[in-house]
Structures are given as structure tokens and as C-alpha cells.
Amino acid sequence: MDIKDEWNDFFETSTEQEQQVMKLFLGSLKTKREKDQMTHIASLLNFKTTRINDHTLEMEMPNSPLLDNSIGILHGGLTATLLDTAMGTMASLVPGNKRGAVTVELKVDYLTPGVGELFICRAEVVHNGRQLVRMDGKVRNEHGTLIASASGTFFKLAE
Amino acid sequence: MDIKDEWNDFFETSTEQEQQVMKLFLGSLKTKREKDQMTHIASLLNFKTTRINDHTLEMEMPNSPLLDNSIGILHGGLTATLLDTAMGTMASLVPGNKRGAVTVELKVDYLTPGVGELFICRAEVVHNGRQLVRMDGKVRNEHGTLIASASGTFFKLAE
Amino acid sequence: MDIKDEWNDFFETSTEQEQQVMKLFLGSLKTKREKDQMTHIASLLNFKTTRINDHTLEMEMPNSPLLDNSIGILHGGLTATLLDTAMGTMASLVPGNKRGAVTVELKVDYLTPGVGELFICRAEVVHNGRQLVRMDGKVRNEHGTLIASASGTFFKLAE
Amino acid sequence: MDIKDEWNDFFETSTEQEQQVMKLFLGSLKTKREKDQMTHIASLLNFKTTRINDHTLEMEMPNSPLLDNSIGILHGGLTATLLDTAMGTMASLVPGNKRGAVTVELKVDYLTPGVGELFICRAEVVHNGRQLVRMDGKVRNEHGTLIASASGTFFKLAE
Asked: Which positions fall inside the Thioesterase domain (chains A, B, C, D) (predicted)?
């Protein structure tokens, strides 16, 4: 049985919640088809980036069943995924950095339970060194509640 | 147009790589249907857990296009997701802990590029305190190459 | 030979730099005698605290030969000592905390070489939880140059 | 009044505990005089180093009143000082590293109260990269009780 038939079989017995997740999966495939450079995980988590200024950007992640941990709130690993992506994206955009940056280390402090409709990560350059970019990141929900605070070190790739 | 028709339309024009990802999505939905307590992200990333002993477990994550970062290697956020899940699962299983544990903070050191077929996280209890469980985690590939090393603090939920 | 004679012998052959350090040692003993609750290390490093507001304090440490690392700049361990002391002091002063707080974990990012006459640490409460106080700390010199940035978790002692 | 007279005056009224601290101060000055490259803080804390193998060393710190925090146990900042010094010393000794290494970041987990006669820090190379050395450190007392666990990143100085 090919993948198309398997999908159609699955649909026949699907619950409403499963159909909601299938919509998310389909949306992510469509986004990824349009923006080929985007990663699968960024399209799956529906990341949207806004550049704020020279050393700051914001990345949004709308809440969805995909983000739940075992007690129904934002999964700490996905909080870290949002932080790492936002901080790494900003780190690769600092002046003088031509080829991007890779994560050396990431430290995340989980402060309050991740609840809400939209999670917004603000990533800011703390220090732009010769080889290392030192970053700061905060995750808040749409009400401004601080959910997580992070720091990270990124290594500039040589030209 | 309903979700089923949208899916079928998308199939008509899908590439081989897109079909591979659709298989992963379908597999994750089937797994989640069988194991209702599993999170979507754990079924999507295909986590499998093996208990090693009283204070250690291993969690595996097979490589797939979903794990790629923007330069085609294991995404640092998903490395963190594997680590947080494995360490948090082990932290919630320590003797005397009845209601699970939540992540207080997580520190991940990225040591070598995440390449390989299978990523294996070993999570170990460093100290089981009255309220806090202190954990250690290592991610290796199938050849034993150390990819990431982490520490984390977890708070025991009261009964 | 008793300690007094040993000291007097040492003085006879002491260099100017050694006499500078002896002055620091004597000053620290005098401070400690006046303020019995102060720790030896705080009096040795000449810590001075200013409360800024409900959730912030500043702690100063004047530069001296005692602070040098092997390449003649501020020792990273003493940067950490200033941060831990300032953050821990502020953590033990949060409303509702009656018996102080102990350090659970401390993360220090060293950003620029520690040079200057005076090092000023600003410690701020990020989140005051039921059991844990989450802190942020920054060390700057007298010109405002950011030398180190830190985060820490502190556990409130039960009454 | 010169520093010698000031010292002698202080002696006249000194308590037994003060004389114990003066002995430590004098010992540290004598050690520093013999080993000029040693830092003041290393001689004050009486650090002794043993090389274990290619990628491991141990550094000892005997307990003394100087190490006490405000509740009479090992000060977290001095635990960090021992860790940073041991890990940084080992990082600067890795093969191919000609000019030493500076601390990029340090994370310390405080696990149990620091009590005992002697604190022993074992510092181990986790990964020796082209520019960065990733280190691991553990502090135990003379009974082998694990007091603190740490990780750190060090940057190799260019030739």
C-alpha cells in the first residue's frame, strides 16, 4: 500500500484533534515548499521572524498541540528550539559575519509554565567578539509573561 | 476544500523527499494514536526509551530530514529536546518521586556536528535531593561519537 | 617561633608589592573584626553593597593584586565570587524569604577582559518563585564596560 | 604609622582565630615569594596541582576559615574559583596549545553542602577543538562526597 492510500485510510478513522494536527503537517509542507531554505522544524513550528534593529530580532511561535509536553504545557525542548533558532539567526546576522554561526552552548532558565496563544522570543546580541557572538534570549507569551530566559554562545564560521 | 482533499491535491505534485516527510508525519500520528500519553513531539521525533538501571535511561532518536538545521546537520534545538525529554523522564522516575518533575534549567554544550543515523541520549541522575533532581545527559551517534553534553535541574512536583 | 616574630622577619625582606598585599590583609582583618557577620572572603575582596530597589542591589569590588589571574587581569573565579555573593545576597532579601538562600547553580559568561579600578556587580531578581529565586547578574568596570553576565538559581531555606 | 607598626598593634589585641588567619596570610605571602608565577588567590587558597594523565588534572584546596560563606560552609564563589583554576589550567595544557586559554563561560551545579577538611577538584578535557577546549570539573571532599559539578568552555590564545 502506498503512502497516499495509507493517508486516506487513516483519514477515515481520524478524530477531530488528529485532523487538526494533519492540517498543521500539511501547512508545514506547503510552507517548506515555498521557502526551500527553511528547515522542516521551523516550518512545522511556524516560526515567523521580525528584525527589530541591528542587534535584536523577534521570532514568534504560535501555540498548537505539537508544542505540548506530557503535562499539557509548552515543551521545554521546543522552548529551547525557539531560543536556539532565534539567537542563532541573530548571531549569524551580526556585522562582519559572512557565513553564519553555530551554537557552542545554550543555557535555558525555565521560569513560569508556558501557557498562551503565541510565544515570542526576543534575541539580542550581548557581545560581538572576533570569533564568538554572545547572545541573550527571552521567551514571553502574548500577555508579556516571561516564560524562559536564556544565554548562548555562537561561533562564527570562517569565510 | 476539506483537509482530506487538500492532502490529496498536495500528493499529486509531491516530490520524493516530501513523500518521505509525509511518511514520517503519518507514522507519528499512528504512534500517537496507539500511545495516547506520548507527546506529539516525542512521536514525531520517534523517541524510544530503554531503562538501563535505577538512575540511568537511554532515549534514541533516529535521524530524518525533520532533524536538519539550516546547514543540514542535527538542529541544536532538537538535540536539546532529546536531552530535556530523556533527562526529565529519568528525573520523574527517581525513587520517592510520585508526580513527575519539571525542568528548572538546562545547559547544553554542543561539541561536534550532529551527523549519523541514530542519536542516543544517556540520561543519568547526578543527585537526587529532597526537591531537586540534578541530571547529566550525553548525546552520541551510532558510532559512539560524543555530540553534546548537558546538565539539568528538575523540580519534583508535590504529591 | 611564633606568628608575630615570623611576620616581623618577613617584613624585613619584603618588597613594596608584598607590603601592598600585607596592607590589604590587615585591612581585611580589621573590617572582619568590626563586622563579625561578614565572611573573610568578602572582607578580603572589600565588597561594599548598595541596595538599589526591591529587587536589585549593587556590590562593588575594588581592583587589587589579589584579583589578578595568571595573565594579570581579573580572575574568573573572583568574578564568579562577586556574582555569587551579590546574587545570593539579593536572593536572600526577597519578600517572604526569612532564612536566606543557597546557590543551586551559577552560569557565568565572560565577555571582555576584566580591567579597571573598580568592578561593580548589579544583581537583579528575575523571578521570585515559591522555593526558587532566579537571578541575573552583570559585572561592569568603572567605565561601564560589561565584563561578565550571569544567571543563577537560589533555593530558599525553610523557616 | 607604617604597615609594620599597624600589624604589631593589631597582634596585641588579636584573638586565636585572627592569628590562625594571619598564619594563612603569611603562608600565602611566602608561597607567592617562592613561586612568583602563582597568583595571589591560588597561594591564598593553597592550591596544589597533580597531573593525572594527558587530559586530566586534580587540584586540591584545604579547608580554612577563609573559605567559609555566611552559613559556615564552603563559599560557592570559591568553589567556582577552584573549578575555574583547575579547568583553565588543564585547558591550557592540551596538546597543541602554546599560549594558554581564557574562560569563555563556566556553569557550576552546587549539589551538596561543602563540608570537610580537603576539597579536591578533578578537571577533565571533554573535547579539544581547534579554538575551544570544553572541560568538565567535579569537586569532592576527602571522603569522596560530590559537592559540585561543572562544565566550562575555554578559548585558546593564538600564538
From this structure: 72-147
